[in-house]
Task: inverse folding
């Protein structure tokens, strides 16, 4: 760990609690990294501007119903695990989840074998918005695919409480809902504009009351929609995943950063396939060998 640069950078930037100081440090890092030369289309620029202002932007028509159906079929018999309770081993989600489990994750290997997911993460529109926002070519630093399922208690744990992610100096996440998400199936909750507010920036979890007092109840939104709903978000902004009460939720989530981070594999998971030859080697270097 001491020789892994990712850990030094990670614990170093987590000491920066001032939003302006973090932005200045991110600018310095971004200036040392590669950028694309292609002009940004006007429609993409509008989406990037919305993301910059609000902290999130919906991306209509990113994912088709047929693609969603393919991913759901792939997951039917795929072993999942509870990252907070490794002693539970593997199980099939969402139908055979242990009662205490809130979230059931799939492995990196399983995600990279899945249909469409890597293509979602590398969608040119997504990468253009992310690069505009980060100020440099992004790194796909982590990939997550998980079920959120109802529990007998219904109580929130871990990321189901308000918090800020502090994954890099500047970073974004793509959320792709692979099931319908309404108030009963665990919608993602975000405090609009909080990614730029210099309040509640310490590490930890916060109550709904603390967040409402800090940023205003009118900024707190439930991001819902049918399967295929997709949005980019700065999860440095205050957010939480509401625990589902009636129906499970499946989400795919790539993490885009300026640098490789400790949440991704230390070495690429597999070699790039011929069909993936067009994928940017720099953007995908954490997961794919060339």
Result:
């Amino acid at each position: 760990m001491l020789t892994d640069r990712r850990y030094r950078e990670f614990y170093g930037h987590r000491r920066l609690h001032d939003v302006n100081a973090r932005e200045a440090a991110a600018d310095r890092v971004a200036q040392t990294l590669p950028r694309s030369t292609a002009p940004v289309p006007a429609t993409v620029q509008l989406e990037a501007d919305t993301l910059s202002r609000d902290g999130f932007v919906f991306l209509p028509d990113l994912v088709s119903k047929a693609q969603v159906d393919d991913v759901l079929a792939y997951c039917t018999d795929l072993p999942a695990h509870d990252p907070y309770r490794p002693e539970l081993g593997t199980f099939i989600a969402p139908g055979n989840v242990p009662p205490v489990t809130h979230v059931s994750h799939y492995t990196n290997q399983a995600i990279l074998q899945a249909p469409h997911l890597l293509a979602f993460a590398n969608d040119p529109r997504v990468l253009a918005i992310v690069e505009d926002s980060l100020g440099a070519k992004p790194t796909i630093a982590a990939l997550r695919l998980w079920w959120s399922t109802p529990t007998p208690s219904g109580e929130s744990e871990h990321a189901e409480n308000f918090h800020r992610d502090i994954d890099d100096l500047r970073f974004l996440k793509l959320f792709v809902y692979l099931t319908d998400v309404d108030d009963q199936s665990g919608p993602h909750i975000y405090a609009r504009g909080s990614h730029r507010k210099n309040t509640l920036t310490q590490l930890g979890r916060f109550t709904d009351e603390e967040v409402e007092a800090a940023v205003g109840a009118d900024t707190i939104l439930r991001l819902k929609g049918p399967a295929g709903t997709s949005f980019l978000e700065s999860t440095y902004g205050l957010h939480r995943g509401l625990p589902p009460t009636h129906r499970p939720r499946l989400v795919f989530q790539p993490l885009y950063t300026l640098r490789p981070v400790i949440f991704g594999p230390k070495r690429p998971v597999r070699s790039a396939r011929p069909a993936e030859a067009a994928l940017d080697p720099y953007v995908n270097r954490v997961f794919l060998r060339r």
Observations:
- The longest strand covers residues 139-148.
